[in-house]
Fold this sequence. Notes:
The complex is a heterodimer. Chain A is mainly α.
Amino acid sequence: MTNSAIFKSSVGKKALMGVTGLFLITFLVIHCSINAMIFLNDGGETFKKWGSFMGTNPIIRTMEIVLVAGFLVHIVDGLLLWKQNRDARPVKYAMNSANANSTWYSRSMGLLGTLLLIFLVIHTAHFWIPNRMQQGLTHWHNEIDLYGKMLEVFQNPVIVAIYIFGCVSLFWHLLHGFKSAFQSLGLNHTKYNSAIGWAGTAFSIVVPAIFALMPVSIYLGWIK
Amino acid sequence: MKFNLKVWRQKNAKDQGKLVDYTIDNINADMSFLEMVDVLNDELVRKGEDPIAFDHDCREGICGMCSMYISGRAHGPQHAATTCQLYMRSFKDGDTIYVEPWRAKAFPVIKDLVTDRSAFDRIIAAGGFVSVNTGQAQDANALPVEKADAEKAMDAAACIGCGACVAACPNGAAMLFVSAKISQLALFPQGQPERNTRAINMVNQMDEEGFGNCTNIGACEAECPKEIKLTNIARMNRDYLAASLISE
Ligand code: SF4
Ligand code: FES
């Protein structure tokens, strides 16, 4: 059996979802920690320092390519799973009491993922893409003022609402995804399951809440 | 008791099929669901109509034949029970009850409520066995097995191959069944020599049959009449991933 055949198999595809999912979770930790520097309310000084480190350090910029690849694999694999799973049940039940045996969000990972993908496009169009465009391939230090841009973008209540909606989708997606990743990789152990479950729930609440607080604080003028 | 039934009727595999309404009265609360269908079939036969085709055999929860999706649940609302173990007292007088066949691409309908579950047999044939002659019973101490492992293996071996896991899974995935059949051997010394090839061959066969991919929803575990655990799926994932990474 070749190693590429693993990822065509059902078990391999879910393992791939798990590995890329956990990788994206580590990205969320870093993204969230650095952006949380705005709460220092120091006119963005600390945030800018860390932000430009992330945007100009060659190691980080190399990791960024891996990150984009991670997103793409997670998205493509997810769409593939969604299609194959839909095809595996060609005739639907006339009566299905799914809530009696499972949670709605565990059944809606494809939908939540799609909402997050739409959010990702909007979000990167606000910050990441314009910044990288201005930097080009060679002028890495020619960054846009991300802090100023935040203050400007989050004056619009519609955009703030979209960001909050994105964070809510992220919460539900993580609430299933965090635990699910461990199960898919076979990391299920009676000794650690409750700790993984607890960590997953805590993570799903804390990280999206901190993210959501950013546009809200700026809109309400708490951060200037 | 009186019930309004909406039963899936389909003449053969090619037929479109539809839900047909029946009303049934004078049902004893202590009748099993299958006995209720027997009474209905009796009436249909007397009226000269085609009786409802459904699978059944042991009628005591051990053969796994009695597949029916009852009012939106595999084997009906009763926890950890097959259709033959479901009693009419679980319903309220005058209830409308939907009765549908298992729905999955890998389980095509043959007639009415009967589906072709031979995909499960082919998965077992792909590796769910130990290919040595067991011969005479050995001395009990020749092959030591730890109590905890023996318990887990026996729990996995309780799977009756009913397919409720596939029927309940929104993805039509068969991982609970396959993982139970892999685990019952993976936990015993006799299962070790073929552990890797078994995991690979059974998972590959499962995929070939057109079952969906598990996304850890857990509906299978909730609906399984034998309470097979999701930990078996994690074990199968481990075995399969390890086996594929080392296989030549
Ligand atoms: S795992 Fe449970 S639901 Fe699935 S076939 Fe076995 S007994 Fe039936
Ligand atoms: S008829 Fe055998 S399990 Fe129901």
